Amino acid sequence: MTAEPLVYDPYDYSIDADPYPVFRRLRDEAPIYYNERYGFWALSRFRDVLEASVDHETFSSARGTVIELMDNPMPDPPMIFMDPPRHTRFRKLVSRTFTQRRIGSLEGRIRELVAGYLDPFVGSGGFDFVADFSAKLPVMVISSLLGVPEEDQDQLRHWTDQTLHRDPGETGPGPAALDAWKEIWAYWQGHIDARRRRPGSDVMSDLVRAELEQGDGTTRALTDAELHAFFGLLSAAGNETVARMLGWAALLLARNPAERARLVGNPALIRNGVEEILRYEAPSPLQGRWVTRDVEYYGTVVPKDSKLVLLTASANRDDREFEEPDRLDVTRRIERHVGLGFGIHFCLGAYLARLEGRVALEETLRRFPVWEVEEPGLEMIHTSTVRGYARVPIRF
Ligand code: HEM
What we know:
The protein is an alpha+beta fold. The protein has helices at 13-17, 20-29, 46-54, 86-97, 100-104, 107-118, 130-134, 137-146, 150-164, 175-197, 203-209, 224-255, 257-265, 270-280, 312-315, 350-367; strands spanning 32-35, 40-43, 59-60, 126-128, 211-213, 219-221, 287-291, 295-297, 300-302, 307-310, 372-373, 379-382, 387-391, 393-395.
């Protein structure tokens, strides 16, 4: 018997549905892999992904981290598409605002939002865990974090939904999506202008007031374009990912009822359970990088100016790092994983993502300790950056 040729195609829906058999073959047979069709290299073993993540000089983010966008780098990129020293200055500035204390203070608001979404379904027999709940929550949370008044948050979520809307046949944003972007832009601009006139104590005010170091000893305020880029980055990085993480949680816990029962029996385990879910199904499974010098892996030279992807989802299932990696174990001792990245671009929203995950699961399991997923109704979303479900219908 000859093995099937080994092909990893990030755009192939059938691979995306369950990439783990391909990832295992990559790790075992081609730990440095080249995809000729799209012209990118891939690292799949935990150690390689981890080491490349911290070597930002060799593996640059400055041309973007989405492989299909790297040939045309953005002129005014968000922080996630920057290298030091520019990245360091931006990261320092926003880290001063995104403190654990400030994010931790959102717990009550997150719990109130979660209860508001879940309570109407008590006694209903079922709902769509993603469409009715997990896709809605993170937009509201980011708005609360930034300081958007509560009465505007539903409107902002509606516009954000519209930006993702695609009519049949549309592969990019259509008129409705573009109109929604304009509304969002104008909305943020109103807040930026108001805070420039009269700053308050919220995150938007802090960002408007913040001084960016210039590298020559001088500082300056962020421009409107930089503020918009940052708000856009928060939405892009913080909404889809959390929505998918919670969708995975609903599906994985239904498929692993004994693990779910452990969380119901001992809610203190939920924090670790969230970490295990992030390890097991990384909502952001690959991170693109631009290779800045010749670098050798397993006897093969990856030439300077190549595209390369760090397969974080594969790394998290590497049995060289994790025992029985394909088993979901909510009590697993996880010292490190790469589901939230690693190194200088480590997820800025990690604390918030974990908080949303914990509160959402605590409140879900308290109301619905047992559920089943109607698997024929599952609907996956396919993008080259986020992996998970748009629909997870549950019954209880
Ligand atoms: C489960 C949810 C989340 C996952 C799986 C996730 C995953 C990631 C990953 C893998 C990276 C590293 C990207 C790279 O190395 O190129 C990253 C960076 C980032 N994330 Fe998250 N993220 C999540 C939630 C959030 C939230 C809630 C926010 C917003 C508050 C956020 C904001 C960011 C930002 C701004 C960066 C860029 C950091 C930098 O360049 O220094 N993320 N995230």
